[in-house]
Amino acid sequence: MPRLAIGPEFPRELSALAQPVRRDAVVALRRFLLNVSGAPHPERVRGARDPRVATLRLAEGHRGVVVRQRDVYWLRTLLPDPEAWAFARRHRYGVNPAIGVVEEWDDEALARVEPALRRSARSGRLFAPICDGDLLGLGLDGHALPLFRLITTEADVAALEPLLPPTQYVPLAVLARGGTLSEAWRELNAWRAVDRDEGPIDTEDLYAALLRSPDRAVFVSDKVTLDRVLEAPAWCTFLYPPQHRLARAAGYEHPVLVVGGAGTGKTMVALHRAAHLAARGSGPVLLVTFSQSLVEELSAKLDVLIEDEVVRKRVEVDNAERLAVRIVAAAEGHRPALVGRGARSLAQLTDDALRLLSITTGDLLDDVDPGRKPYRHMVVDEAQDVSPAQWRLLRAAVPRARDDLFIVGDPHQRVTDTKVALGAVGIPAAQHALDRSHRLPQELLSFTVRLRGGGPSPGLVTGVTDLSAFSATRHGERPVVRAYDTPEAELAGLRGTIDAWLADGVPAREIAVGARNQRLVRDAKRALRGLDVRASTFQHMKGLEFERVALIGVAEGVVPEPPPDEPYARARALQRERSILFVACTRARSMLYISHSGRGSPFLPL
């Protein structure tokens, strides 16, 4: 029986095929997995740069490209016949000798650029001061070392990025910008999917390398797991190594804080950590998020992520406000009033909930019997907007024990006036960082960082965080900023833009329109009458993502709203307004459209 691993591109390419072709491909793949009569057989690729590469005829006119080693098959991609043969001839594969992950090389393209590098190398070689041993110690490929020796500028390294495995590009990029060998090693080491040392790396063992590469391959052992991988959203199956390492760690002795910019996968890490704790932890799990709309969103994602109904029931999803309401209601026998006579503010309600919880489960330090706490594990999303009182309540709801609190957030996306260091509320968290955006293209990321202001922001641990190391994994469209003479012309422009996006084939559910206030949202809905496109305030876009996003009314006097006069309050209000606009802009995966009538917002980059 073959040991079959599926690559992340394959399910996407399969889903894009016409239904009859898709059905034939799935049937053929099932036969191959089960090794039964009529299964496709590997066909050699003439002129292949890697002799282990073969193709499988999976449907009329379509082939899968596989990398094979004995009974191990890594199914890389699914393409029409001519493209599949070309892909198979062009690439070679290897195992990084330093961290053991699988690597894919565009060998054909690298051969084409070598003469240009050789000509420019006469003016001086960038890595000449570094010996071969040091470069090889960073996991750089021995066969590619002569090519790397030809590099003369940092721009050469940047030009090679699309052709290299990321685990080859990353250390080169650090060294090219003047970084040390230690810094280059730290950047490479971040691509490990597991923290523990697995012993010597066997660069000839493809199976072990695929197991270490959760973003590149997942093994399927039967029809059920195969169908699951082919049908589930990619985020359910394929995690980037830093995400995998954080979400699937065997255990944490102390609270953990994961910080990361927009699109780095913080929420995906939180979901997978909650699922991991539900399956392997020692009690009920609470996943906390910012708002009721996000509660519903994350609950739906967990329904997809966790197949086992018993395991799924171990995870509750809620926000801090509703947790306080539930605790007080359980103690007082009725739902507390938040408006009208006898009403309590949310802050008062949270304090009451903490007092009641301390009475029923013991004080904050009394964790002799963890079972007295309402939850054994807690995962907190959008942590930057949790208030100090809410943190004290959350801390009291889980015991101080292994795997108690797993927290994710981004201080730069703070949309409330809350600023708190976790240590000040009894949560001495160890911080980890995600700094690569997989959602935003570099052009959109650069625009939003300038809009937000890349300077430091008060963090969730003592000190500040900044956006200096934040980067994207791909390139795309530049944001479009349009100025109109009148609000009516701006709304007509919005309608034309959305009509064009829908005509491009973008599903309505993948389009969002945002505005700073409800009046502008109502105007947008009137302009888009008849179109099933989401329109909401900037704040209500928090935590969501869409293929394309249009923001209207980003004008002076609207964004920001007029701030108070007192200098300190004014500075805080303006920073909050920047954060709100930043959050709305970073909801887009591929295209961002911003419009205003009259003078544009002073926040918009020039």
UniProtKB/TrEMBL annotation:
Please indicate if the UniProt record lists Protein biosynthesis as a keyword.
Answer: no
Which residue intervals define the domain UvrD-like helicase C-terminal in the entry? 533-596
What keywords would UniProt list here? ATP-binding, Helicase, Hydrolase, Nucleotide-binding
Q: Which SUPFAM superfamilies match?
A: P-loop containing nucleoside triphosphate hydrolases
Annotated GO molecular function terms are: 3'-5' DNA helicase activity; ATP binding; DNA binding; hydrolase activity
Q: Which GO terms describe its biological process?
A: recombinational repair
Q: Which Gene3D superfamilies match?
A: P-loop containing nucleotide triphosphate hydrolases
Ranges annotated as spanning the membrane: none
What Pfam families does the record tag this protein with? AAA_19 (PF13245), UvrD_C (PF13361)
Family matches, as InterPro entries = DNA_helicase_UvrD-like_C (IPR014017), DNA_helicase_UvrD/REP (IPR000212), P-loop_NTPase (IPR027417)
Q: Record's GO cellular component, any one? A: cytosol
The coiled-coil regions, if any, are none
The name under which this protein is listed is DNA helicase UvrD
Please spell out the taxonomic lineage of the organism that makes this protein. Answer: Bacteria, Bacillati, Actinomycetota, Actinomycetes, Streptosporangiales
